[in-house]
Specification:
Largest interface: A-B, 36 and 36 residues
Oligomer: homodimer
Number of domains of chain A: 2
Order of helices and strands of chain A: EEHEHHEHEHEHEEEHHHHHHHEEH
Number of strands of chain A: 11
CATH superfamily of the largest domain in chain A: Dehydroquinate synthase-like - alpha domain
Radius of gyration of chain A: 20 Å
Number of helices of chain A: 14
Largest sheet of chain A: 4 strands, parallel
Structural class of chain A: alpha/beta
Strand content of chain A: 15-25%
Chain lengths: 352, 352
């Protein structure tokens, strides 16, 4: 498949490990560091290690798996390790993992000595279709997602499809929400094709189409001043549900499970406020409720959810900002939502 | 005096408080935060506050004074305060203070929600001639200066000369080292003029000339790939002495005191390796030893100093990198120094 050119860096879909080895050979880094977690350390690192053991100038930095690790304490730990390993400005960080690894590894790299190079090997479907493109890094503080971060581009992204086969079904579903979103905001054909495919293991071709959509949007608006906000569809409410669940549930919702809820609610808001046709709302609701388990949202959780929405980075002047669909495949940005509308959209989901 | 245009932002030297008020009025920020320390809170904040009390959408964030505060724990504290105050992406941070405030306030701002706007009101001579230009932010980890940071430009810098009159003489001397350095690397006339002036309170005109030199260099090379390294003259050894003193002395050396030592040592290296004339070395040595108190450097501290130099951000592939003078007013970058040469330069200073 064609190499996708993002913001001055290539995204490889074929022969990615060979491409990675070539990249390391040609780049002349003084040292490189593979940043990984327990899971990718177990399932993915051996595959990569086999090919890069020809190099002797690298170390492995492993952290605990999970969103709880995406905090400043782990960053401090990694910065200190880089200091201890004597990492200079000509070092490279290879982020081998899902969104936590790429977000945090990107943040650590973009701030260590005011920025060293990094590349991603996204190992989850979510990080392949989402974190691989866009140049956002971030960590959570006090449970607020990505409240601290930078805009920084990797030097390359290497997609290795076989890693997806090691993932549990829930992880695939989590990434799937972003694929579906890319169809909903920009490509009705992708949405239609996704519905007709086996979504327990999306094909590399569908992933490639999805990444291409996100890449096109991000290249047009790298710092999220206008059309990049399209990508926030489902995320105003979805992020709040995700944060809420992370703080309250023993087994928190995955990102995609939360975004699926957000997309249903925001599709309802789009239907009320942006003329999204009734048939489209029904299609979106039926598709997402079939794919994703129902989450119990109660009227007495709504205040807490609304409080989290008020903290959203996307808000300006205290107003809650949503991206709507005008139809499947088309979006409208910068829609202010009132408290009442947001509560009603949550009621729509709760009543399904 | 003429407004200096730096990397897309103006540096005001006259009527700066009026300019600040106009800036706030015109910019439409949802909220602003004055970031200050105990000292500037006491001496400088009242002057600023008097003019900005016409606004009601601001808060004050005060930290302890001193380099010890420039750490990640204080950053976390400030990020949390911004969260608690509900700071959105359309917020502004006003850094009112010396280098610690501008470096850390710039870092906090450039990473909060992936970057909000900030301006500097530098209140020390050092921050006026150094931190006001260049777009570097940073914090220390494990005593290693600026090991974590970003490149990020303020929206404006406001110089208020009267603040310098509140400074103790040692603070003036600290900033003076950077003024002298700007003469040494790029303007023999500035060096000559500085020597003939009352340096206990450098005139706004001399400060303006010094800022202009740094600005010219930084604009040509914003990310320090080549000629910006000129500004590192005196800093390879000077930073090591500064860090060493911070870790070991009850009353640590100021930045300028340490850089003055570094400039003497690196002038000696320049004389040995880059044909700096003997007369220039003598001039530099005599001028700096007259202005700055002698620091006791002993042979048995040299290993510790060398270890710190090996951690320097400027090193590549483990080699220690220095900027030399070829004569007063001219520099040469990317000179690799051996351990022996560095030790000998320290011996030169110790024997003065």
């Amino acid at each position: 498949m064609e190499i996708i050119q993002s913001n001055n860096y290539p995204i490889y879909f074929d022969n990615s490990i060979v491409e990675l080895v070539n990249f390391i050979k040609q780049s002349g880094y003084s040292r490189f560091f593979i940043f990984t977690d327990e899971n990718t350390g177990k399932y993915c690192l051996p595959v990569v290690k086999e090919k890069i053991d020809q190099f002797d100038n690298y170390d492995i930095i492993e952290i605990n798996a999970g969103e709880e690790s995406k905090n400043i304490d782990f960053c401090i730990g990694v910065w200190k390790m880089l200091i201890d390993f004597g990492a200079d400005r000509n070092s490279l960080i290879i982020n081998l993992g899902g969104g936590v690894i790429s977000d945090m590894g990107g943040f650590v790299a973009s701030t260590y000595k005011r920025g060293i190079d990094f590349v991603h090997i996204p190992t989850t479907l979510l990080s392949q279709v989402d974190a691989s493109v866009g140049g956002k890094t971030g960590i959570d503080i006090e449970g607020i997602k990505n409240i601290v971060g930078t805009f920084a581009q990797p030097k390359a992204v290497f997609m290795i499809n076989e890693f997806l086969k090691t993932l549990p079904p829930r992880q695939i579903l989590s990434g799937l929400a972003e694929l579906l979103k890319h169809g909903l905001i920009a490509d009705a054909q992708l949405w239609a094709d996704l519905k007709q495919n086996d979504l327990t293991q999306p094909s590399p071709e569908l992933i490639h189409r999805s990444v291409k959509i996100k890449n096109k949007i991000v290249l047009e608006d790298p710092t999220e001043k206008n059309i990049r906000k399209a990508l926030n569809f489902g995320h105003t409410i979805g992020h709040a549900v995700e944060t809420y669940s992370l703080l309250n549930d023993q087994v928190p919702l995955s990102h995609g499970e939360a975004i699926a809820i957000g997309m249903i609610c925001e599709a309802w808001l789009s239907n009320k406020n942006a003329d999204l046709p009734d048939a489209d709302l029904q299609d979106i609701t039926a598709t997402l409720t079939t794919l994703y388990p129902k989450y119990q949202l109660h009227e007495n959780n709504f205040d807490a959810l609304f409080k989290i929405m008020q903290m959203d980075k996307k808000n300006l002047n205290g107003k809650i900002n949503c991206t709507f669909l005008t139809r499947i495949g088309q979006f409208s940005i910068d829609n202010i939502c009132t408290e009442e509308e947001l509560y009603n959209s949550l009621r729509y989901y709760a009543a399904l």
